[in-house]
Specification:
Length: 480
C-alpha cells in the first residue's frame, strides 16, 4: 500500500494557516511633536474648552448666561429667551453647521476632525496627561513592556486618576448646561444629585474617559460615520495632507552632508517619524487614506526633519491631488481651490446665516397661542349675544415684567369679555381664559358654522422698549 498520498495530505495540512477574524489591534504610541499646525490645534483646544467649561459659570441678568431649563421649557442664551415653539432656530443652526462642514471639507478635507472635533480635542488632552506622567513614546513603550512594579503601578494609577477626574468634570459641566451649575456645585458636596443628574454625569464622564483615553483612533476609524462618507465631498482640488512622491522617492537614509542626487535618492530619509506622530498610525506616504484625520502632525515633524537636513520644507504638506500630479505652484493650486462648488457652498452658508440672524433680530418679544375652549359650547348670554370660550397662552420672551392688551376683530361688534389687560412676569408663560361675544344681528348675518376671527395682543411702548403686536387667528362657532 503506497504512503505517498498520505504524505502529500500531511504536507498540505501543514501548509494551512489559521487567520483570526478578530486580530488584536496593536497599541499606537503617538510621539510628541511641535510645529505651526500643532500650535494651531492647541489654540483651538484652549478656545473650545474655555467656552465649554467656562460658559455655564458666566452670569447674565442675575442668572446663568446659557441655560437649557428643560423642566420649565425655557432656553436662555444671553439676552435670548427661547421657548419650544422657537425650535426652528435650532433647525437653522444645525443647517448652518452642516453647510459649514460641507464647505470646510470641500476646501481642505477633514479640518473639523483634525482641529475642533471633541474626539480630537479630548484625545489631545488625555495624551498630554499621559506624556506628562508616563513620558514620551519610547518611555511609554518601555513602561508597557516592563514588569509590573511599584513605579509602573504608581504611574498608571496616577494617569487613570487624572483621566477619570477630567471625564467626571466634563460630565458635570455638561449637566450644568441643563441644571443651574451653581446649584449643581452645591449639591456635589452632599452628593445630592437627582437620578437623571447622576446618570448624565456618569454617562458622559465615562464616554469621555473611554473614547479619549482608551478607544482614541478606533472611534475615528470605525465608529465615526464621517470617515466613511467624506469622500463624497472630496474632489481632486480639495486640500489634503499629501506626500510629494516625485520629490521624496526613492527613499533612503543618509548623512546630513551627503548629496542625495549622487546617491540616487530623493529627499525622504525614511526616518519613519511621520508614522510615529500619527494619532491613527498610518503612513501618509501611501497616499490618501480614510483613517487620516488631517491633523497635520506629519507635516510639522517632516518640516523639522527637512530643516535639520538642510532641504526645503513641504515634502509632506497641504496640497491637492491635481497640484501634485501637475506640479502646480501655490497660485495655480489656490485658483482651483476657490472653485464654483466652494463659492456655492459659501453663498448658501452666508444667506442662511444672514436669514437666521435677521429672524432673531426681528423676533417678537412675546408669543401667543390661542386655543378655542372645546369643553365649553357656544352659548347665549344677556341681550341675546352669542359667546365662545377661549384660552390664550402668552409667553413673555423678555426678562422684564410686561403688560399686554387683548382685542378681537373679524366679526362686527365682537368684544372680549373678562380681562382685557394682563401682566406677565419675566420669562413666564401664562394661560388666560376669556370669552368673545358677538351681537345677535352679527350672528344672524354670519349664519351657522365656524367663522374666522383674529386676536390682537398689543404691548404698549415704554421708556425702554418699543411697542409690539402679535396677531393670532382662530374661529368663532355659531351653532345651528
Amino acid at each position: 500500500m503506497s504512503t505517498q498520498p498520505a504524505a502529500a495530505a500531511a504536507d498540505e495540512d501543514a501548509a494551512v494557516s489559521v487567520v483570526s477574524l478578530y486580530q488584536k489591534q496593536q497599541k499606537i504610541y503617538p510621539r510628541a511633536v511641535s510645529g505651526w499646525f500643532v500650535r494651531w490645534r492647541w489654540a483651538l483646544v484652549f478656545a473650545t474648552q474655555m467656552v465649554f467649561y467656562g460658559l455655564p459659570w458666566l452670569a447674565w441678568n442675575e442668572r446663568q448666561a446659557v441655560l437649557f431649563d428643560l423642566a420649565s421649557r425655557r432656553f436662555y442664551i444671553f439676552n435670548l429667551v427661547l421657548y419650544p415653539q422657537d425650535f426652528i432656530y435650532l433647525t437653522g443652526l444645525l443647517v448652518i453647521c452642516a453647510y459649514s462642514l460641507f464647505l470646510f471639507t470641500a476646501v481642505a478635507g477633514r479640518l473639523w476632525c483634525g482641529y475642533a472635533c471633541p474626539q480630537t480635542v479630548y484625545t489631545e488632552i488625555f495624551m498630554w496627561v499621559e506624556r506628562r506622567i508616563e513620558g514620551d513614546r519610547a518611555a511609554r513603550m518601555r513602561l508597557d513592556a516592563g514588569p509590573w512594579n511599584l513605579e509602573k503601578v504608581g504611574r498608571k494609577a496616577a494617569k487613570q486618576a487624572v483621566w477619570i477626574s477630567i471625564g467626571l468634570w466634563t460630565g458635570f459641566t455638561l449637566v450644568g448646561y441643563f441644571t443651574p451649575i451653581r446649584t449643581l456645585w452645591a449639591e456635589a458636596f452632599t452628593m445630592d444629585f437627582g437620578p437623571w443628574e447622576w446618570f448624565w454625569v456618569l454617562f458622559y464622564g465615562f464616554a469621555t474617559y473611554g473614547n479619549a483615553g482608551w478607544m482614541r483612533e478606533q472611534v475615528c476609524k470605525y465608529m465615526c460615520p464621517y470617515a466613511r462618507f467624506q469622500s463624497a465631498m472630496f474632489d481632486k482640488d480639495t486640500l489634503i495632507i499629501s506626500y510629494d512622491g516625485a520629490r521624496g522617492d526613492p527613499r533612503g537614509s543618509r548623512g546630513r552632508k551627503a548629496d542625495p542626487k549622487a546617491l540616487g535618492l530623493g529627499d525622504c530619509i525614511d526616518c519613519g517619524l511621520c508614522v510615529q506622530v500619527c494619532p491613527t498610525g498610518i503612513d501618509i506616504r501611501k497616499g490618501l487614506q480614510y483613517e487620516c484625520i488631517g491633523c497635520a502632525a506629519c507635516v510639522d515633524v517632516c518640516d523639522g526633519v527637512m530643516d535639520k537636513m538642510g532641504y526645503p520644507k513641504g515634502l509632506v504638506r497641504y496640497a491637492t491631488q491635481n497640484s501634485m500630479a501637475q506640479q502646480w505652484g501655490p497660485r495655480q493650486m489656490w485658483a482651483r481651490v476657490l472653485r464654483p462648488r466652494v463659492l456655492v457652498y459659501t453663498a448658501v452658508l452666508v444667506l442662511i446665516s444672514a436669514g437666521l440672524l435677521t429672524s432673531l433680530i426681528l423676533r417678537s418679544p412675546f408669543r401667543v397661542d390661542v386655543v378655542r375652549d372645546r369643553g365649553t359650547l357656544a352659548r347665549l348670554v344677556d341681550d341675546g349675544r352669542l359667546e365662545n370660550g377661549y384660552r390664550l397662552q402668552i409667553m413673555n420672551a423678555t426678562e422684564r415684567v410686561q403688560k399686554y392688551r387683548i382685542q378681537v376683530t373679524g366679526a362686527e361688534g365682537a368684544l372680549v369679555v373678562g380681562r382685557q389687560d394682563i401682566e406677565v412676569m419675566p420669562a413666564e408663560a401664562r394661560w388666560l381664559p376669556l370669552a368673545v361675544q358677538v351681537p345677535p344681528e352679527t350672528a344672524a348675518r354670519l349664519g351657522p358654522g365656524a367663522h374666522p376671527v383674529e386676536f390682537i395682543i398689543d404691548r404698549p411702548a415704554s421708556a425702554d422698549e418699543s411697542a409690539a403686536q402679535v396677531r393670532e387667528k382662530s374661529t368663532f362657532v355659531i351653532p345651528r
